[in-house]
Amino acid sequence: MNNYEISKNDFYKFIEQGYKVIDVRSVGEDKMTGLSYQGSYNIPYPGVVRKAEQLFPDKNEKLIIVCNYGSRSGLTAKTYRQKGYPNVFVLYGGLYGLK
């Protein structure tokens, strides 16, 4: 794990602290995989990266980025961190990790 990956247990703790869950999978991918987190916002990759400042103008926004296994969400979280968002995390293992 790197310094912005969080475990399943931390995922739920962060949500209790007001973090938003951003699902970066393609529209409808939740139906294909059967995986989802109710209450998440679907903003597909790579648009979520290209429009970071428009979507989240407050760089202190609390975000957890998710996808199926953690690849797209990891790239998204890493890019957001590089853009100066300190409160962006990725769920280790993706949504499959919540099973």
Main pleated-sheet profile:
5 strands, parallel
Looking at the structure, the CATH topology is Oxidized Rhodanese, domain 1
User: So, CATH architecture?
Assistant: 3-Layer(aba) Sandwich
Low-confidence stretches: none
Helix and strand content put the structural class at alpha/beta
Concise overview:
It contains 5 helices and 5 strands, in the order E-H-E-H-E-H-H-E-H-E.
Notes on the protein architecture:
By secondary structure, the protein is α/β, with parallel strands linked by helices. The chain has a single domain (5-98), classed as Rhodanese-like domain (Oxidized Rhodanese, domain 1, 3-Layer(aba) Sandwich). It contains 5 helices and 5 strands. It has helices at residues 8-16, 29-33, 47-50, 52-55, 71-82; strands at 5-6, 20-23, 41-42, 63-66, 88-91. A 5-stranded parallel beta sheet has the order 1-5-4-2-3. The longest helix is centred in the C-terminal third of the chain and has 12 residues, at 71-82. The radius of gyration is 12 Å and the shape is globular. The mean pLDDT is 95. InterPro entries: Rhodanese-like_dom, Rhodanese-like_dom_sf.
